[in-house]
Amino acid sequence: MRSYLGVLAAALGIVMFSTPTAHALVPRTLDGNGVLVGSPVAPVQLEIFCDPQCPYCAEFESTDGDKLAGAVASGRVAITYRWLTFLDPRHHNDVSARVTNALFVAADLATPPNAYQAFVQDIYRHQSKDGPSAGDVAAMARESGVPDWLADRIASGDNVIDAGAVNDANSARLKDESPDNPGTPTVYNLNTKSVVDTQDSAWLDALAS
């Protein structure tokens, strides 16, 4: 597993040479399996492990998504989303893989962090048995502020990842960071190397203050 410092350094290098502000991009992590939302030099760095079909993740984003968006916008918090697709075999579909691929298409230097976070929240508001179509996901992306040309790629079904490999890598990372309860959603504090107790309603305020 690559160290977080290596990921941070790579992301910071992208910021320094690609854009004048540390907030105007949503790159992949160095290992290719995560999406960084927010500044790579934010004082609080979190990892969030989610599956697009997970109802508990939907509840988490419904409860805390707006607060996360505000914390990212303030520059106090950055989120690395690590997407999983383990629910596909359980539901006998490919919804998580398709949506995860769309979330990686949207992970681009042209995508503002607030747009990506809004996209994540919108996806969870539209969970369904068969999942949204590519066109529906693309519409959510556009409405969230993801650039049109990236939304067009989502609509066309442009495949940019091996969803199985991403799931395997992020599952292994999740088990390493939360061996006692490797479920979703899991929020991991990269600064303290510990799992965050999100059952406490003030958890984000305590971190971002």
Automatic annotation (TrEMBL):
Record bears the keyword Signal: yes
Q: Which domain of life is it from?
A: Bacteria
Annotated Thioredoxin-like fold domain ranges read 32-150
UniProt keyword Manganese present? no
**Which controlled-vocabulary keywords does the entry list?**
Signal
Query: According to the UniProt entry, where is the signal peptide?
Result: 1-24
**Name of protein:** Thioredoxin-like fold domain-containing protein
Species, as recorded: Mycobacterium cookii
The root-end lineage is: Bacteria, Bacillati, Actinomycetota, Actinomycetes, Mycobacteriales
